[in-house]
Amino acid sequence: MKKTFFSLAALAGIALLALTSCNGKNKKEEPAPQVQDEAAVEQEPVPVFLNAVALYSPGALYKQDKDDEGLMVWNRQINCGTVLEAFSYSGTGVEKKTAVRIVKEERQERSFVHVRYNGDDYWIQDITIALNAKPGVITADDTFIYKKADIKSMSSTALPFGTVVAVAETQDDDKFACISVDTEKETFHEVFVKKDSLGEGDDLTILSLIAAIGEAQNEVLRNELTEALTYYSSASEAVNEKKHEAITKVDQKLDTWIVEESLPGIFLQGEAGEAAADAFADLEEE
Protein backbone atom coordinates (compact mmCIF):
# COMPACT_ATOMS: atom_id res chain seq x y z
CA MET A 1 0.00 0.00 0.00
CA LYS A 2 2.85 2.26 0.83
CA LYS A 3 4.50 1.38 -2.42
CA THR A 4 1.40 2.21 -4.34
CA PHE A 5 1.08 5.49 -2.52
CA PHE A 6 4.73 6.29 -3.22
CA SER A 7 4.36 5.38 -6.85
CA LEU A 8 1.36 7.70 -7.25
CA ALA A 9 3.15 10.50 -5.45
CA ALA A 10 6.25 9.96 -7.55
CA LEU A 11 4.21 10.04 -10.73
CA ALA A 12 2.50 13.19 -9.58
CA GLY A 13 5.89 14.77 -8.82
CA ILE A 14 7.32 13.70 -12.17
CA ALA A 15 4.28 15.07 -13.99
CA LEU A 16 4.55 18.34 -12.12
CA LEU A 17 8.27 18.53 -12.86
CA ALA A 18 7.68 17.79 -16.51
CA LEU A 19 4.96 20.43 -16.72
CA THR A 20 7.22 22.96 -15.04
CA SER A 21 10.08 22.06 -17.35
CA CYS A 22 7.82 22.34 -20.37
CA ASN A 23 6.53 25.70 -19.31
CA GLY A 24 10.03 26.87 -18.61
CA LYS A 25 11.16 25.69 -22.01
CA ASN A 26 8.26 27.45 -23.71
CA LYS A 27 9.07 30.66 -21.85
CA LYS A 28 12.68 30.49 -22.96
CA GLU A 29 11.63 29.96 -26.57
CA GLU A 30 9.25 32.97 -26.53
CA PRO A 31 10.87 36.17 -27.82
CA ALA A 32 11.71 38.71 -25.15
CA PRO A 33 9.45 41.75 -24.99
CA GLN A 34 10.80 44.51 -27.23
CA VAL A 35 11.02 47.09 -24.50
CA GLN A 36 13.65 49.11 -26.30
CA ASP A 37 11.62 49.31 -29.50
CA GLU A 38 8.57 50.54 -27.62
CA ALA A 39 10.62 53.13 -25.80
CA ALA A 40 12.16 54.26 -29.07
CA VAL A 41 8.77 55.04 -30.51
CA GLU A 42 7.98 58.48 -29.12
CA GLN A 43 4.50 59.86 -29.30
CA GLU A 44 4.09 63.17 -31.06
CA PRO A 45 3.63 66.02 -28.60
CA VAL A 46 0.11 67.39 -28.44
CA PRO A 47 0.00 71.19 -28.62
CA VAL A 48 -2.01 73.32 -26.24
CA PHE A 49 -3.26 76.40 -28.08
CA LEU A 50 -3.11 79.78 -26.39
CA ASN A 51 -5.31 82.65 -27.56
CA ALA A 52 -3.38 85.46 -29.22
CA VAL A 53 -4.38 88.77 -30.80
CA ALA A 54 -2.61 90.58 -33.65
CA LEU A 55 -1.54 94.11 -32.72
CA TYR A 56 -0.42 95.44 -36.10
CA SER A 57 -2.52 96.58 -39.04
CA PRO A 58 -1.51 95.44 -41.51
CA GLY A 59 0.08 92.45 -39.83
CA ALA A 60 2.12 89.76 -41.55
CA LEU A 61 1.94 85.97 -41.35
CA TYR A 62 4.97 84.03 -42.57
CA LYS A 63 5.78 80.54 -43.80
CA GLN A 64 9.14 78.83 -43.46
CA ASP A 65 11.16 78.69 -46.65
CA LYS A 66 11.12 75.15 -48.08
CA ASP A 67 14.88 75.11 -48.68
CA ASP A 68 16.01 77.26 -45.76
CA GLU A 69 14.44 76.63 -42.33
CA GLY A 70 16.07 79.81 -41.02
CA LEU A 71 14.24 82.04 -43.50
CA MET A 72 10.66 83.28 -43.15
CA VAL A 73 8.71 84.21 -46.27
CA TRP A 74 5.71 86.56 -46.15
CA ASN A 75 2.51 84.65 -46.89
CA ARG A 76 -0.56 86.71 -46.03
CA GLN A 77 -1.78 89.91 -44.40
CA ILE A 78 -4.06 90.23 -41.35
CA ASN A 79 -5.64 93.15 -39.51
CA CYS A 80 -5.20 94.38 -35.97
CA GLY A 81 -7.53 92.47 -33.66
CA THR A 82 -7.31 89.20 -35.62
CA VAL A 83 -7.55 86.22 -33.26
CA LEU A 84 -4.81 83.60 -33.61
CA GLU A 85 -3.89 80.37 -31.81
CA ALA A 86 -0.32 80.09 -30.54
CA PHE A 87 1.31 76.64 -30.31
CA SER A 88 2.40 75.63 -26.81
CA TYR A 89 3.69 72.13 -26.08
CA SER A 90 4.47 72.65 -22.41
CA GLY A 91 1.29 74.50 -21.53
CA THR A 92 3.30 77.34 -20.05
CA GLY A 93 5.07 78.87 -23.03
CA VAL A 94 4.82 79.12 -26.79
CA GLU A 95 6.83 77.62 -29.60
CA LYS A 96 9.34 80.21 -30.81
CA LYS A 97 12.26 80.34 -33.17
CA THR A 98 14.76 82.92 -34.33
CA ALA A 99 14.73 83.34 -38.09
CA VAL A 100 15.41 85.86 -40.83
CA ARG A 101 12.97 87.93 -42.85
CA ILE A 102 13.95 89.96 -45.90
CA VAL A 103 12.78 93.57 -46.17
CA LYS A 104 13.92 95.58 -49.21
CA GLU A 105 16.71 93.05 -49.81
CA GLU A 106 17.89 93.46 -46.21
CA ARG A 107 18.10 90.36 -44.02
CA GLN A 108 16.67 91.03 -40.55
CA GLU A 109 16.85 88.52 -37.70
CA ARG A 110 13.66 88.37 -35.67
CA SER A 111 11.90 86.18 -33.10
CA PHE A 112 8.83 84.37 -34.43
CA VAL A 113 5.94 82.55 -32.75
CA HIS A 114 4.27 79.49 -34.26
CA VAL A 115 0.55 80.17 -34.71
CA ARG A 116 -2.53 78.70 -36.35
CA TYR A 117 -5.05 80.80 -38.30
CA ASN A 118 -8.12 79.44 -40.09
CA GLY A 119 -6.77 75.91 -39.68
CA ASP A 120 -3.39 76.62 -41.27
CA ASP A 121 0.07 76.99 -39.69
CA TYR A 122 2.05 80.23 -39.83
CA TRP A 123 4.77 82.16 -38.02
CA ILE A 124 4.40 85.73 -36.76
CA GLN A 125 6.84 88.15 -35.14
CA ASP A 126 6.45 87.92 -31.38
CA ILE A 127 6.34 91.69 -30.87
CA THR A 128 3.29 91.98 -33.13
CA ILE A 129 0.96 89.80 -31.01
CA ALA A 130 -0.36 89.61 -27.46
CA LEU A 131 -0.65 86.18 -25.85
CA ASN A 132 -3.47 85.01 -23.58
CA ALA A 133 -5.61 87.86 -24.84
CA LYS A 134 -8.85 88.71 -26.62
CA PRO A 135 -9.67 91.70 -28.86
CA GLY A 136 -11.20 94.88 -27.46
CA VAL A 137 -11.79 98.48 -28.52
CA ILE A 138 -11.46 101.91 -26.94
CA THR A 139 -14.92 103.48 -26.57
CA ALA A 140 -13.98 106.91 -25.18
CA ASP A 141 -12.00 109.80 -26.64
CA ASP A 142 -8.48 110.41 -25.35
CA THR A 143 -8.17 107.30 -23.23
CA PHE A 144 -4.80 107.54 -21.50
CA ILE A 145 -2.44 104.65 -20.97
CA TYR A 146 -1.35 103.86 -17.42
CA LYS A 147 1.91 102.09 -16.69
CA LYS A 148 0.38 100.37 -13.67
CA ALA A 149 -3.12 99.77 -12.34
CA ASP A 150 -2.74 103.00 -10.45
CA ILE A 151 -4.22 106.42 -11.16
CA LYS A 152 -0.84 108.00 -10.35
CA SER A 153 0.94 106.12 -13.16
CA MET A 154 -0.80 107.86 -16.08
CA SER A 155 1.42 108.32 -19.14
CA SER A 156 1.30 111.03 -21.80
CA THR A 157 0.02 108.60 -24.46
CA ALA A 158 -3.69 108.75 -25.23
CA LEU A 159 -5.62 106.29 -27.41
CA PRO A 160 -8.35 107.69 -29.68
CA PHE A 161 -11.89 106.35 -29.87
CA GLY A 162 -12.08 103.15 -31.91
CA THR A 163 -8.51 101.96 -31.26
CA VAL A 164 -8.37 98.16 -31.37
CA VAL A 165 -6.44 96.62 -28.48
CA ALA A 166 -5.64 93.19 -27.05
CA VAL A 167 -7.18 92.65 -23.61
CA ALA A 168 -5.51 90.24 -21.18
CA GLU A 169 -7.79 87.30 -20.40
CA THR A 170 -7.00 87.48 -16.68
CA GLN A 171 -8.20 90.70 -15.07
CA ASP A 172 -7.55 91.22 -11.34
CA ASP A 173 -8.42 94.90 -10.96
CA ASP A 174 -11.89 96.40 -10.73
CA LYS A 175 -11.05 99.76 -12.31
CA PHE A 176 -8.22 99.02 -14.73
CA ALA A 177 -7.84 96.58 -17.62
CA CYS A 178 -4.51 95.18 -18.76
CA ILE A 179 -4.03 95.65 -22.51
CA SER A 180 -1.46 95.56 -25.30
CA VAL A 181 -1.66 98.00 -28.19
CA ASP A 182 0.34 99.38 -31.09
CA THR A 183 0.34 103.12 -31.76
CA GLU A 184 2.01 104.99 -34.59
CA LYS A 185 5.02 105.66 -32.35
CA GLU A 186 5.33 102.65 -30.06
CA THR A 187 4.07 99.15 -29.26
CA PHE A 188 2.91 98.73 -25.66
CA HIS A 189 2.67 95.37 -23.91
CA GLU A 190 0.81 94.86 -20.62
CA VAL A 191 -0.14 98.44 -19.87
CA PHE A 192 -3.45 99.62 -18.44
CA VAL A 193 -6.53 101.66 -19.33
CA LYS A 194 -9.65 102.42 -17.33
CA LYS A 195 -12.28 99.72 -17.75
CA ASP A 196 -15.06 102.24 -18.36
CA SER A 197 -13.21 103.34 -21.52
CA LEU A 198 -12.93 99.81 -22.90
CA GLY A 199 -15.44 97.81 -24.91
CA GLU A 200 -15.47 94.20 -26.10
CA GLY A 201 -17.72 91.84 -28.04
CA ASP A 202 -20.57 93.75 -29.67
CA ASP A 203 -18.74 97.07 -29.32
CA LEU A 204 -15.97 95.77 -31.55
CA THR A 205 -18.45 94.23 -33.99
CA ILE A 206 -20.46 97.46 -34.29
CA LEU A 207 -17.40 99.62 -35.00
CA SER A 208 -16.04 97.04 -37.46
CA LEU A 209 -19.36 97.06 -39.36
CA ILE A 210 -19.39 100.86 -39.42
CA ALA A 211 -15.89 100.89 -40.89
CA ALA A 212 -16.91 98.31 -43.50
CA ILE A 213 -19.99 100.36 -44.46
CA GLY A 214 -17.81 103.40 -44.99
CA GLU A 215 -15.47 101.46 -47.28
CA ALA A 216 -18.15 99.56 -49.24
CA GLN A 217 -18.42 100.65 -52.88
CA ASN A 218 -21.35 98.42 -53.74
CA GLU A 219 -24.77 99.75 -52.69
CA VAL A 220 -26.23 96.28 -52.12
CA LEU A 221 -23.33 95.30 -49.86
CA ARG A 222 -23.61 98.57 -48.00
CA ASN A 223 -27.31 97.99 -47.36
CA GLU A 224 -26.68 94.45 -46.12
CA LEU A 225 -23.98 95.63 -43.72
CA THR A 226 -26.28 98.38 -42.46
CA GLU A 227 -29.05 95.87 -41.84
CA ALA A 228 -26.64 93.61 -39.95
CA LEU A 229 -25.69 96.60 -37.81
CA THR A 230 -29.24 96.87 -36.46
CA TYR A 231 -28.95 93.50 -34.70
CA TYR A 232 -26.19 94.66 -32.32
CA SER A 233 -26.42 96.93 -29.29
CA SER A 234 -23.89 98.46 -26.95
CA ALA A 235 -23.77 99.68 -23.38
CA SER A 236 -21.57 102.55 -24.58
CA GLU A 237 -23.41 105.76 -25.44
CA ALA A 238 -20.61 106.82 -27.79
CA VAL A 239 -20.75 103.53 -29.73
CA ASN A 240 -24.54 103.74 -30.02
CA GLU A 241 -24.26 107.28 -31.40
CA LYS A 242 -21.85 106.06 -34.08
CA LYS A 243 -24.23 103.22 -34.88
CA HIS A 244 -27.20 105.59 -35.22
CA GLU A 245 -25.22 107.89 -37.52
CA ALA A 246 -24.23 104.98 -39.76
CA ILE A 247 -27.81 103.69 -40.05
CA THR A 248 -29.44 107.06 -40.74
CA LYS A 249 -26.71 108.61 -42.85
CA VAL A 250 -27.68 109.58 -46.43
CA ASP A 251 -24.80 109.84 -48.85
CA GLN A 252 -25.81 112.86 -50.94
CA LYS A 253 -22.71 112.68 -53.10
CA LEU A 254 -23.48 109.12 -54.09
CA ASP A 255 -27.11 109.95 -54.98
CA THR A 256 -26.02 112.95 -57.06
CA TRP A 257 -23.37 110.89 -58.83
CA ILE A 258 -25.93 108.23 -59.79
CA VAL A 259 -28.37 110.85 -61.16
CA GLU A 260 -25.67 112.72 -63.04
CA GLU A 261 -24.43 109.54 -64.65
CA SER A 262 -27.97 108.53 -65.59
CA LEU A 263 -29.02 111.96 -66.91
CA PRO A 264 -25.89 113.74 -68.20
CA GLY A 265 -26.35 117.40 -69.08
CA ILE A 266 -29.38 118.07 -66.89
CA PHE A 267 -27.18 119.57 -64.18
CA LEU A 268 -25.37 122.01 -66.46
CA GLN A 269 -25.69 125.61 -65.41
CA GLY A 270 -27.08 128.56 -67.38
CA GLU A 271 -28.58 128.45 -70.86
CA ALA A 272 -26.89 125.12 -71.66
CA GLY A 273 -28.56 123.55 -68.69
CA GLU A 274 -31.98 124.94 -69.57
CA ALA A 275 -31.61 123.69 -73.15
CA ALA A 276 -30.63 120.22 -71.95
CA ALA A 277 -33.60 120.14 -69.58
CA ASP A 278 -35.98 121.15 -72.37
CA ALA A 279 -34.53 118.46 -74.63
CA PHE A 280 -35.00 115.84 -71.95
CA ALA A 281 -38.60 116.98 -71.41
CA ASP A 282 -39.26 116.62 -75.14
CA LEU A 283 -37.86 113.06 -75.06
CA GLU A 284 -40.19 112.16 -72.20
CA GLU A 285 -43.25 113.46 -74.13
CA GLU A 286 -42.30 111.40 -77.15
Strand content is 25-35%
What is the rounded distance between the termini? 142 Å
The percentage helix is 25-40%
Largest sheet: 6 strands, antiparallel
Oligomerization status of the protein chains: single chain
Protein architecture, described:
- 22% of the residues are buried.
- Mean pLDDT is 78; it is low at 1-27 and 251-273.
- This protein has helices at 2-29, 35-40, 202-215, 219-229, 237-248, 252-262, 270-285, and strands at 48-54, 59-64, 72-78, 83-88, 96-103, 106-117, 120-125, 129-131, 133-138, 143-146, 154-159, 164-168, 176-182, 187-194, 198-199.
- Helices cover 34% and strands 33% of the residues.
- Strands 1, 4, 5, 6, 7 and 8 form a six-stranded antiparallel sheet that branches. It has a five-stranded antiparallel sheet with strand order 14-13-12-9-15. Strands 2-3 form a two-stranded antiparallel sheet.
- The chain has 286 residues and is of the alpha+beta class.
- The chain has seven helices and 15 strands.
